[in-house]
Amino acid sequence: MLLAACAILPRSADAKPLTSYVDPFLGTTAPSSVAEVGFKAPWKVWGGLTFPGSSLPNAMVQLSPITRFKSGAGYEYEDNTIVGFAHTNKGHWNLCNLPVMPASGRVNPNNFESPFSHKNESASPGYYQVLLSRNNINVELTTTLRCGFHRYTYKDGRTKKLIVNLAISNEQVKDWKIEQVAENAFQGFQQARDKIFFYATTSRKIEKIEMHSGREHKLPVINFDGDDQTLEIKIGLSFVSAENARINLEAEIAGKSFDDIRTAATETWEALLSKIRVTGGSERQRGMFYSCLYRSFLWPALRSDTNGEFKNPKGKTVRANHAYYTDPSLWDDYRNKLVLLGMLAPKITEDVIQSMIERGNASGFMPIFFHGDHAAPFIAGAYLRGLRGYDVKRAYELLLTNATRESNRGRPHLNEYINKGYISTPRVGDPGVETKAKAGVTKTLEYAYDDYSLALLAREMNDDATYQTMMKRSRNYANLFDPETGLMRGRLEDGSWVRPFDAKQPYYEYMYREANAWQSSFFAPHDTEGLIALYPDKTAFERQLDRLFTTPWNPRHIARNVNTFIGQYCHGNQPDHGFPYLYYWTNRQEKCQILLNIIMERFYGMGDGRTLCGMDDAGEMSSWYVFNAIGLYPYSPADPDYIITVPLFDEVRMQLGGQTVTIIRSAGDPKITEIIYDGEKLQGWFITHDKLLRGKTLHIKTAPVVVKK
Questions:
Q1: Which is it for strands 309-311 and 317-319: parallel, antiparallel or unpaired?
Q2: To 5 degrees, how large is the angle CA 484–CA 488–CA 491?
């Protein structure tokens, strides 16, 4: 299996499997009360947008129930009907391809959904089960890397049918096809954003495939013979061809039972989760930790077949000696999740980077995602942590192109950024949350950090001229600092400040990206000392930081994905997730730790215990928890070091690069008094990746906070 060759940490004989701690339903609900959200929402607030179905780490297949399409991951916990089981998922508003639904008796093409109860539903890593009450069909699902395995148990004598709803997914379906190719096999494709092929074998003979005409589209229904209670369907996927889907099925699942595949899936997840073992903490904290660790390894997704073939960006079938993956959700997860991926799954990380290079070769630019140019910190950070299994020279060339040639495929508004040192904000009379513009403040701050990241790689490539240029450009963030407000503020083309200015108003694209001024103004992880120097002194900076966490949120400011606050700090979205650590630079580390503890306790497992405060965003929200729970955080992900915090657990053992590093806390108090690694006292708050690779013991000594009267 995927992780069979990886060294894992053994568990004691009386310890329960780590997979038993995982709740795949985490994030399938959303905060709802005004106290949780921060305002009275006129619509349903976004939850984690996660899916509870079966998948292996970074697999091609995510086989999960759909309660409604076009709703993030397709599964809303408060729903009480299921419309199908789709084979791809991410946790955003795409994919959910190839939905199927078991049925019996007469099929109404306009109404075949089934009620279900959470009392008759269960899930664990690599397995999902639910009883469909409409026809009393028990559904069980498990997966391999590229295949889904369905086991349906019917009542005696019930006819067995499978609805293959190829006309719908979370993306617009352009074309589809299904055909019977043997008495126990069918195949076809669904063309949405990508063309996804499938090949399936069935435990019962196919009698016929009928086409039912519904109100919106035709609906294929497969009829099976036999009166056995159980119907099993094995479905192989491929992004190349139906023949490759068949090859994938033969390689991964043919000849194996449902229980064989389920057991193998559980073992694969147990191997990955066992790379970090924790001692101490509460049962809730251990459950949240391993649930978040699980969630951190579901994306990027595999796209190459068992024979090594995949479709390149030009649509040509090629074969490589590496696995081919989707692009990461770079804007969301470069901060922490991709660092965690590199630490625990280095080979996958190297293949992800090489896959990005191949897409870059087709377009001439290194891929970006949504906003910013964050392949730069991802690749620089991976390289500096010792991951070298990709063409770093070509990666550097593509990143340099992104940083020097303006393009929507790379960095929009780059020429203005280079010439002025910032990206301007257009004059708008009365901007609102959804006002369209350049998000100039956010772009400027992020480009500056991307420049720093590229400078680090330039230094490794012995390109001193580029290093000097990019380091100079990395100071551009300071060009948008407004001394009057102590915040980053938009400038018009003529250099004057945007007026009027409401620092609390969130925007999607005007000045800021999915944030307000408070949630954007402290982003300079590469130059925190320089950021602080923009203020009169460190005391003034700390007072401003205090205001971030104490200035109440204005409940009239409503944005769909900006919610759950501590003051103005928003943990429901990514932009300010690195801000609590800034207290380290004002010699008030304990303030940071108090905030971290509040965030982990309050915003993870809200309400019914399975609610996340915002979108998990392909694992970023989960990875934030994982890092802080073990006492390390990649404050500047391009740099190969970690800021040290107080772990939630008494002891953490992490398998890293073939060695086991142990992290011990003396107590759970918030104030760190001393940090010792391998018997030597560390100076400062950071530990390098190279030191962790030695596999020694990191001892974090703490003390209570003394409140002066």
A1: antiparallel
A2: 85
